[in-house]
Amino acid sequence: MGGIVITGSQSGMGLDTRRYLEAQGTLVIGVDLPGKGAEVETDLSTPDGREAAARGVLERCDGRLDGVFANAGVDIDQPALTFSVNYFGVVDVLEQLQPALAKSSPSAVVVNISDSISITPGIPLEPADALLRGDLDGAVALMAGQERWSYQTSKFAIARWLRRHAATEAWAGSGITMNAICPGPVMTPLLEHDLQDPVKGPAIRGLPRPLDEFTTGQDVAYLAEFLLSRRARFIVGQLIMIDGGIETTFRSEDHPAVWEPRSRGGDRWLPSGQRGLRPADDPVAEKGGR
Q1: Active-site residue 20, yes or no?
Q2: Residue pair 73/109 in contact by the 8 Å Cβ criterion
Q3: Which domains, ranges and CATH numbers included, belong to the chain?
Q4: pLDDT score, position 285
Q5: 263-268, long-range: CB < 8 A, 24+ apart
């Protein structure tokens, strides 16, 4: 049967994407909280809820999926709940749906992250590393006194997970592309509410807006649909900012960065004679090759 799964399908960016896909005739299997009217109603903040999500989807797709838009998320200063939904609510569900995606290869995964992973100074890295080890309790303990960064930490961790796994045998090697979209402020009912907040409102309005307007949910839907399609087949492991230029305004000089392949074992991909070389020692680089 196939189809596209959207978590958080009944509101905001998830609903805009759902409507756009359905208007093109795509079968959508929505996952959202009980009472919201999705095909699969469950709470992604609990292990049982995540298992129920995967089970409900698999019952409706006959074991084959064309794609997943992992969109559900929360933004609150409660590390346990935020990490459970934003990190484990993505990883656990995707890992359980991976066989169905592989059966329908070529297929695709898109994760909704946030441009905040790139424009927020001082995101705590130790809790993110704990999440990547699967240690929820440890991550929560490490957030003591810095709970306000719960959202950014969860999104940083899932971005790092995606980058580590996208090109592996289980994902790209199984015909599944995996990428992320990183929106800035998106004009949804939630943003309209935040703009009225005496603290959040001025902070949001103070962000640079080179296009002089906010991203819309429809804009996000266009990008999500593209990344889920075969037109994006050779895009793998990328974090695509869709924020109207906010990130590049702040960090125009940070990308691209010179690759230091010795970090994290990156030089394993280099020819054996070049591993461990400094750029000045690289005979090919000296000749202006590559």
Answers
A1: no
A2: no
A3: 4-257 (3.40.50.720), 259-290 (no CATH)
A4: 46
A5: none
Judge whether 244 and 213 are in contact, CB under 8 Å. yes
Give the pairing of strands 4-7 and 67-70. Answer: parallel
Which residue in 20, 87, 151, 222 is the catalytic one? 151
Convert the pLDDT of each residue in 30-59 to its tens digit.
999 999 999 999 999 999 999 999 999 999
pLDDT tens for 1-29 read 689 999 999 999 999 999 999 999 999 99
Q: For residues 290 and 281, give the distance between their C-alpha atoms in angstroms, rounded to a whole number.
A: 15
SS3 of residue 288 by DSSP: coil
- pLDDT for residue 271 is more than 90: no
To which residue do tokens 């796994």 refer? 165
DSSP characters over 1-33 = ---EEEETTTSHHHHHHHHHHHHTT--EEEEE-
Question: Does the pTM of the predicted model rise above 0.85?
Answer: yes
Instruction: Say whether pLDDT at 264 is over 50.
Output: yes
Alpha helices in 229-279 (DSSP H): 246-250
Going through the chain in order, the beta strands assigned E by DSSP cover 4-7, 28-32, 40-41, 67-70, 107-112, 176-183, 186-187, 215-216, 239-242
